[in-house]
Amino acid sequence: MNSLHLENASDEPLYNIGMVARMTGIPVATLRVWERRYGFPTAARTPGEHRLFSEREVLRLRWVKAQVDEGMQTSQAIRTLQHVQEEGRLPDILTTPAPARPPVSDPSLSAFHNRLLELLIDSELQQADQLMGEILTLYPLEDLILDVVTPTMHDIGLAWLAGEISVAAEHLATNFLRQHLLMWMITGPAPFDGVPPVVLVCAPDEWHEGSLMIMGVLLRRRRWPVAYLGQSVPLTDVAALAEKIHTPAVVFVSILEKGALALQEWPTYFPQAAATGRPLVAYGGQIFVDRSDLRDNVQGLYLGDTLRDGIEKLDATLHTMFTPRA
Amino acid sequence: MNSLHLENASDEPLYNIGMVARMTGIPVATLRVWERRYGFPTAARTPGEHRLFSEREVLRLRWVKAQVDEGMQTSQAIRTLQHVQEEGRLPDILTTPAPARPPVSDPSLSAFHNRLLELLIDSELQQADQLMGEILTLYPLEDLILDVVTPTMHDIGLAWLAGEISVAAEHLATNFLRQHLLMWMITGPAPFDGVPPVVLVCAPDEWHEGSLMIMGVLLRRRRWPVAYLGQSVPLTDVAALAEKIHTPAVVFVSILEKGALALQEWPTYFPQAAATGRPLVAYGGQIFVDRSDLRDNVQGLYLGDTLRDGIEKLDATLHTMFTPRA
DNA sequence: TAGCTATTGTCAATATTTTGTATAGATACG
DNA sequence: CGTATCTATACAAAATATTGACAATAGCTA
């Protein structure tokens, strides 16, 4: 049993008011007056009536502070917080820049990964949902995806291959993760204005869309609009679509050798892109990591061996080729 | 900048007038004078008589602003909005086309369906997104799904069959709609507390999940938690999962005869459900509409010939069987 | 064309609310 | 004992509410 009880740990009364003021940047007097006027934040009391705030309350305070700093009125921010919590919606850490970004390779993220895997294998969707929400209050979405969702998807695939979980459990878990990824692909920060969407598509004869979806989400988070095609589409059709919408880039992902081989033919269908480099054609996927020889025969930008490398390289390249206006 | 999730617009009074002015670009004084002159927008009040606007009201304001920016008179835009909302019908002003006016979007659902189809076939994702947002300012999500999304999905399937659109365009359009449906399935009002999720799954050997996704969204909108399995899962596995999570109901959908025939066998795998009626087993899908004889050999609750009937019947039955606490 | 009118956004003046901060006396903590 | 925290009250700056007036525009009429 994994011993990570975030719920309990963060509800524990820990910090006195001065500490909280230093942690959040909210003056002591303000904290008190907020409590009196709005009933927020709530705090346990010592026998002598001194306030003790929990970790969770500090997070909520940070969120409210962030909203207020962005111009929202205090009462409104607190109303919104409470409304959002009643609805079970996550506060949009997604739209507001993460304050004081925690270190990237935080060991607790791998603990979250194990916990999420466990919940999904047990088909505990509601708890899994809650866990994702909690992770998002602590870490940016990008880290959640790269360090938690990606390994979890991978492990579920393995468990299914090994016959350790039923088809139903696998479908349920996969759809759970897929739903969240697809949602994140269409929500989030406003996309760059006047930029046509980047085309994301599996290689021909390729049906695994996991890493493609993740690339889609990461691109979208970095404000590139995304046209998600998903599973296997003939290269002719991709080329026609790319030309029609004037896409800045086409991204292919392949897991299987068959798809990688088919990709070698892309310049035949995109002569213009092969000659001029526009639109950008990029590719990646596990098969190119395992079989580096396959990369030699595929033109275009190789996205590197990891998703992290991939999104960095793609984002950087797009930014050098285009200068999107906000 | 605060980005509103159009899909979750609620009636909760949240935003003060200054915030609304920033969100909509309508000056504070104008908002007040509109209220005074036209009775729109409406706003709740704080104990001190300050206005509090809901998200939905912000969306309505955005819609009106868009119409005004396109040249419509303010009073007329507001009249149109109110007319549409109260009677679900267009005022004559719009049905008898104004001479030489820039085209104002026609707020009728079938018109929206055609417009959305057109945009998706042309791969105009951003415009399609905007259109869905507009529709949601005027109609509830349930109408958008049943009267716009469903026929659009259907027509895209037909266009693809007829070879009128490329595989790429079809994938793009389908994924666009799928993304929105899956998002709506995991967002929305807080689900009933303490109720295990309803299991949604395609019949065996059935790969079309369109109407299943729609049922999922509609159920979720009515606050039933949903476990979405999607495509073809063996009945054994479905039964095991259903038992494990103590689901209140299992919903099967089938489009093809093969799936409908396989469904006849479900009582073998769910002896308890067949005997006691718990969990509820319900089914539906186009094949049962076309071939009513197939219904005779499938036990369980038949959901009726339309999605509208289906959700009503399912919701009602679930409510009689269980009394969820809020 | 000139004049009248309805529509519409903006502004001004004054009163009230909201909100952060400051002060004072008492109590708790270590 | 010194410092921190408690409650309660007071106060000033910013935002909002209400009412009435006014200028610009468009459409209509004589």
Most extensive contact: A-B, 56 and 56 residues
Q: Mean of residue pLDDT of chain A?
A: 84
- Please list the strands of the largest sheet of chain A in the order they lie side by side: 5-4-6-7-8
* Unreliable runs of chain A: 1-9, 88-105
Instruction: Name the overall outline of chain A.
Output: elongated
- The proportion of strand residues of chain A reads 5-15%
Q: Return the string of H and E elements of chain A.
A: HEHHEEHHHHHHEHEHEHHHEHHEH
Q: Please outline the major beta sheet of chain A.
A: 5 strands, parallel
Quaternary structure state of the chains depicted: homodimer
Summed up, the helix count of chain A is 17
Helix share, percent of chain A? 55-70%
Rg for CA atoms of chain A = 23 Å
* N-to-C span of chain A: 47 Å
Q: How many beta-strand segments of chain A?
A: 8
Structural class of chain A: alpha/beta
Summarize the entry for a quick read.
With 326 residues, the first copy, chain A, is α/β, with parallel strands linked by helices. Chain A is built from 17 helices and eight strands.
Supply database-style keywords.
homodimer, 326 residues, alpha/beta, 5-stranded parallel beta sheet, 3-stranded antiparallel beta sheet, 17 helices, 57% helix, disordered N terminus
